[in-house]
Amino acid sequence: MVEQDGLFDDDAAAAPVAVAAAAAAAAAPLAERLRPRSIGEVVGQPHLLGAGKPLRTAFETGRLHSMILWGPPGTGKTTLARLVAGAVDAEFIVLSAVLAGVKDIRDAVESARAAQRAGRGTVVFVDEVHRFNKAQQDAFLPHVESGLFTFIGATTENPSFEVNAALLSRATVHVLRPLEHSDLALLVGRAQALTGAPALTDAACARLLAHADGDARRLLNAYEVVAELAARESGLAQIGEPLLERALGEQLRRYDKGGDQFYDMISALHKSVRGSDPDAALYWLARMLDGGADPRYAARRLLRMASEDVGLADPRALRLALDAAEVYERLGSPEGELALAEAVVYLAVAPKSNAVYAAWNAVREQIRGDGTRPVPLHLRNAPTRLMKTLGHGSGYRYAHDEAGGFAAGEDYLPEGLQGRRWYEPVARGLELRIGERLAELRALNKAAREAG
C-alpha cells in the first residue's frame, strides 16, 4: 500500500487489484467474455424469451419458479440461470452434478438458510442434473417444497427419463432449441467487434455457422481459435475458408451417442425406410456414420427394419441386410459402409409389410392375457407306449400323405382358439401370392369341415 500524509491512499491500493481483475477478464475464454449480462443481450430462444413468454414474464415480474432447462449444449442454459438469479437479486449457488455429492447439497441448503435469515432468496443451479442419482435428486425435494430456494436444473438429456418424477413434478420444463443461423451470425459480429479480428468472407462465415451446428459455445470457441490464427497473419484483410480449415480441421456434426439425438436419428432412418424414401434413408444413415455411430449398430438396425417393415413382402430384404452386415465385418470403414448404403436403398424401395410383426405382437398379447391351454391330444408327442395308450398323437393326420400335401379341415390350435387368425398378409410383393395361397387353403378347410 502507498501511504500519503499519514493515511492510506485507497485508490493507489486498489489499482493493482483492478489491473489484475482486468487482466483476468481479458484472459477469459471468448465465450465467457461475451456471456450476456442482461436479458436483452440474450440471442435465440424467442419461444421462451419473447414478449409474454414464460421466462420473459418471470424476469419482468420477479416471480421465479423452479425449472428444468433442457436443451443441447451451447444454447444458454447456464446463462439463463445466472440471469434469473440476478433479476431478483438472489444468492446464486452453482453445483455440478459431475463433481458434487450429498455434502455439497447440504452445504448449499445451509447457505440458502443463511441467506433466508438475511432476507435474501437463493437460486440453486445444478448443471448436468441428470448425472445425480435418485437419492441426490431426492435431497432437494423438501427444500424446493418449502420454498427455501428456487431450483434450476440444466440437462442435455430427456428429463422424462433422467429426472425423478417427484422433482420433475415440482419444476417446469423449458426446452431450449439450437440457435438459428441468424442468431449465430449476430454472435460472430459481437465476437469480431470484441476481438478486432478481420471480417469473415461470406463462404467462411457460412462454414463456421455450419460447424457450430446451433451451439453458441462451439461457435465462439472456434472463432477464438480462428481469430488468434488470423492475428499472426500480417496484412490479412479477410478471413477465408483456407484459414478456417487450418484452424478447425475436419468438421464434425453434433451427434450425441447414447442420448436423445442418437435415438432421434435412428428413428428418422427407420421411418424413412418405412416411408419408402431412399434419399432420406441414405441421408440419415450418412449423418449417423458421420457423427460416429458404430456401423455395426446401424447394420443391426437394418436387420430389424427388414424383419419388421419389409417382412414377407420381399424375403430377400432380410438376406441382403445380413449380407451387408457381413460385408462390413470383412471390409470395415469406409469401404464396408457402401454395402450398408446398398441395403438401406433396397429396404426403402422394397414392398412393405408389417403383417408378420403385427401377427407376432398379437399372438404374444393373446398368450400374456390367456390361461395355459393344453396341447390338443392329436398334436402331442407320443414317444412311449403309455403316452400312446393315453391318446397322445391319436387321430393326427400326416399332411404329406394327404392330397396336395394338405390335411384339409385339420385343427392345430388349442380348444377355444380354433379359427383364430393373427397373420393377415398384405396385397403387396410376395405376400400378395401368400395371401392367395392362404385363401385357397382356407377354402379347402371350410369345405372339409362342412362335409364332416
What does this structure look like?
- The protein is of the alpha/beta class and 452 residues long.
- It has 5 domains: 3-32, no CATH class; 34-175, P-loop containing nucleotide triphosphate hydrolases (Rossmann fold, 3-Layer(aba) Sandwich), CATH 3.40.50.300; 181-248, Orthogonal Bundle (Helicase, Ruva Protein, domain 3); 260-349, Zinc Finger, Delta Prime, domain 3 (Up-down Bundle); 373-451, no CATH class.
- The chain is built from 22 helices and 9 strands.
- It has a 5-stranded parallel sheet with strand order 4-5-6-3-7, sandwiched between helices. A two-stranded antiparallel sheet has the order 1-2.
- A hairpin with a 2-residue loop joins strand 1 (3-4) and strand 2.
- Helix 15 runs antiparallel to helix 16 (278-290), helix 15 crosses helix 17 (295-310) and helix 17 (295-310) packs parallel to helix 19.
- The N and C termini lie far apart (115 Å).
